[in-house]
Design brief:
The protein is mostly beta strands. Helices cover 14% and strands 53% of the residues.
Length: 259
């Protein structure tokens, strides 16, 4: 009986120590976060390579970058030849641990157009609002991408391994979107040229589509819905010779297009 009492006390001590360590380290991580905002020289291109930060691109009064990070893990920021370059520090790359408070916010003056947006992230979300971009190349291992009230003029390439893609109230001039594990949502987006969307495991949904455009829906395991047509057949098409084409290809999930 005494041994049992000793074991019970030891277990309680171990639990207490574990809880203390969890709370202590959790508090120290958030407590060490530091927010800094700096004005930067004007730029018309953005190149981002991050490991564990969320990134937001929005409009404001002037060119600036705001970061919230553990002060030891602040990404490197510089403008070179008109390109804003943001790269994860070596320590951050080694840590490779996502914190919801670790963020980077890029602000451009209203009306400033981006010639190119290159984005690579291991573990973090991307949010783009009120931007006009000539070309975008977006890659993410784990994280969602949200694009709102923005225009991408010359096509775009998006590759997401584990995360969803949401585009609302914008315009696309063609593009290629590849998702491996996540849903795609396009709401009230005008589309010109050829846009190809491929998904391995997730639903594709387009709302606010133009009936005059051409569509090709294909799924190996799911339902195709094109306006008022619904079928469990693998493929459904409309106006294949139209100059504006939207293609939805899915391995495991539904394709839905609505007005």
């Amino acid at each position: 009986m005494k041994k049992h009492g000793i074991c019970s006390k030891a277990g309680l001590v171990a639990i207490g120590v574990g809880l203390f360590m969890l709370l202590t380290f959790g508090q120290s991580s958030s407590a060490s976060a530091k927010t800094t905002q700096q004005s930067v020289a004007s730029f018309n291109k953005v190149k981002v390579n991050l490991v564990s930060n969320d990134l937001k691109i929005t409009t404001g009064d002037h060119f600036s970058v705001k970061t919230t990070n553990d002060k030891r893990l602040k990404p490197r920021i510089e403008v070179k030849d008109g390109t804003l370059q943001i790269k994860a520090s070596k320590k951050q790359a080694q840590a490779n641990q996502h914190n919801k408070w670790a963020t980077v916010e890029i602000t451009l003056p209203k009306g400033q157009q981006l010639e190119n947006l290159e984005y690579q992230n291991v573990n973090g979300d991307l949010y783009v609002d009120q931007q006009e971009i000539d070309k975008a190349n977006l890659e993410s291992n784990t994280g969602s991408v949200k694009i709102k009230r923005s225009t991408i003029n010359q096509g775009s390439t998006v590759s997401l391994d584990n995360g969803g893609l949401t585009i609302t109230k914008g315009r696309l001039e063609g593009g290629v979107f590849n998702l491996k594990n996540g849903n795609l949502q396009m709401h009230n987006v005008s589309q010109r040229g050829t846009t190809k969307i491929s998904n391995k495991n997730g639903d594709n949904e387009v709302i606010g589509a133009n009936r005059k455009s051409g569509y090709a829906l294909k799924t190996n395991n799911g339902t195709n819905k094109l306006f008022k047509k619904t079928t469990d057949d693998h493929q459904l098409t409309q106006k294949s010779k139209n100059s504006n084409q939207l293609s939805l290809t899915n391995e495991n999930g539904d394709n839905t297009i609505k007005e």
